[in-house]
Request: fold
Amino acid sequence: MDIKELVSKMTLEEKAGLCSGADFWHTKAVPRLGVPSMMVSDGPHGLRKQDLQADHLGINESIKAVCFPAGCAAAASFDRNLLYKIGETLGNECQAEGVGVILGPAVNIKRSPLCGRNFEYYSEDPYLASELAANEIEGVQSKNVGTSLKHFFANNQEHRRMSSSSEMDERTAREIYLAAFEGAVKQAKPWTVMCSYNRINGVYAAQNRKSLTDILRKEWGFDGFVVSDWGAVNDRVPDLEAGLDLEMPTSFGLNDEKIVQAVQNGTLKESVLDRAVERILTQVQRFEQHRDKTAVFDREKDHALARKAAGECMVLLKNDAELLPLSKTAKLAFIGEFAAKPRYQGGGSSHINSSRVDSAWGLVQENCGEYPNISYAQGYDTNTDQISADLQQQAVQAAKEADTAVIFAGLPDTYESEGYDRTHMRLPENQAALIEAVTAANPHTVVVLHNGSPVEMPWLDRVQAVLEAYLGGQAVGGAQLDVLFGAVNPSGHLAETFPKKLEDNPSYLYYLGEGDKTEYREGVFVGYRYYDTKKMDVLFPFGHGLSYTAFSCDSMRLDKDHMRDTDTLTVQVQVTNTGKRTGKEVLQLYVAPPKGEVIRPIHELKGFEKVELAPGETKTVTFTLQKRAFAYYDMDLPDWRVESGTYTIELGESSRKILKTAQIAVTGTSKKLRKVTLDTTFGDLMQIPGAAEILQPLVQDYGITSDDSGDSTALGESTAQMMEQMLRYMPLRGMVAFGGGKVNYADAQAVAEQINRLPALQD
Reply:
């Protein structure tokens, strides 16, 4: 049945009821008209399907499913194809389990390393987050299952998340926090978008008409339905009017009744309700019409993909003297509880009831013939931060007897979870002490990290190698062995900067905020945009990642040396594997703007490609850059604007390791509209074509010289410079005070109006 016709047959009560859940995980059915219920389920890195006694925080058990690498790890892959494959697999699992929408992916920006939910999020960079999310969405939806892109938007802390207001200017929102959603919405067209709990500049996300309707729908063309985060609805009728279509979970009829009353008393147009119902029914029908009842949830097959994915995501941070890869026959000590019981996912609503969990030590024991000389020592207890002298001594002894010690360390479950934020960036005290003790006993030490966001590493100089495994999913143990022993060449790169200490983070002074207000005073300077612009030393830069092979970029060619911002720039790069192993290189393309009138980051990521190369093989990689690669958000227009000037295209292996540069002259076609007033300075006026001729009589009357010849040197060089600078920063109205009585306010206003009529200031 046609959706509009179906809605026309529904009662007011049925329509209002359809705008909230039937329970925790299902939309309402309308049996009278054949409208089925649709199940949604938590994600985004696995299917957390609950039926009975459902809860949103993962306390009650869900079905056995496959836990893929969390967002923190998946982003480090820099691999669009991998994200598509994971999404495709999740989509098939949903079909097999009758789930119509999986709640994810999550693209909120990693503003601070402290956010308790960072493990779910992709990156500090909106372009990377958006590209990876788009591919995961396309993978899921290729199976005719919907996604719910979340949490829209500016949900960057767990502290007071249901009441705090994220306070930021329009440029910051557009360039950083909205941008992560924008590309994914436009490219992948998710079936649903989930609004966040928080307020945005004082207005709850669920009631924010500007973001839900003006931006999301009218500007970006989103045509699915907006669902609330669970419990994020604050005032149902205004929320509905703002663009919040589906409230989850059920309100037990209370908010349905509010909608009915509002329509009946005329405070809510029934057409607004009809529109929301149409949006919901469209996606319910879409899933129902494309149900694949032949789909099979093959947990073993999907576990194998989880292992492959985890190997692609791991980041080799350090590898002095090429300590890695290890030999399987070498005498090794695996140290740390995470070797036997890995931390592979975060806590909260995304917690998966994994079908199996592989640990590195468990697999070594199962395959002892393949790994004949590996011992194990627990080293620490994850249930406490306290140092155990016995456990530490056993670990030190094992390290002394081994050629190489491999310490499996990281953050316990209690350190990172939905619902609260971290208070520091340190490892637990017992783990930090263990690393110190083991490295003193054996300098040939590798540290394998299990964490959802950066940690401080005061011990970094004392270890030879560091492998960042992040939260790698249920197959992480096998993937760790693959990388440690060289079956897989590490190819992950950091999707976030690791600062040396928490205090270096740009949001440090303002994170968490005061009461229910959090000010984003760092503006667009998030992550590497801040660290690189300030030339601040960091532990590891954005985009960093080592390999067991080596690559060289032989050339970078631009298809033009000048362009208008309406043109497209093509960049071609030749990359060669100069090492002895097949490997994958992540090429990162940054754009550095000219030093113009707008304060901007020194460079920004605008392209990336992951390419696999055999030893000696060369491939050509092509990037295309359009207007947005050069633009900033001009709040005066308001729109995206490109400043005319010379931009530098940077090819890097990280944001700090730039391999090749080239320049392109870009002409902006958006006029910077100005309104000249009596407060406009002479320096600004002189930048306007044609204004100098109009201003010349006033400049002469100002009289910066002391003799009739007009020779400014008669004043002395320093005085002349002072007078010139005073004139540069003097507003037009200053001519009245300093014009020697020759200029009045009417004269100055006439000049302002004359300049405003110049073509350069016309729309």
User: Anything to note?
Assistant: Residues 704-710 have pLDDT under 50 and may be disordered. The first strand starts at residue 39 and ends at 42. Residues 270-289 form the longest helix (20 residues). DSSP finds 23 helices and 25 strands in the chain.
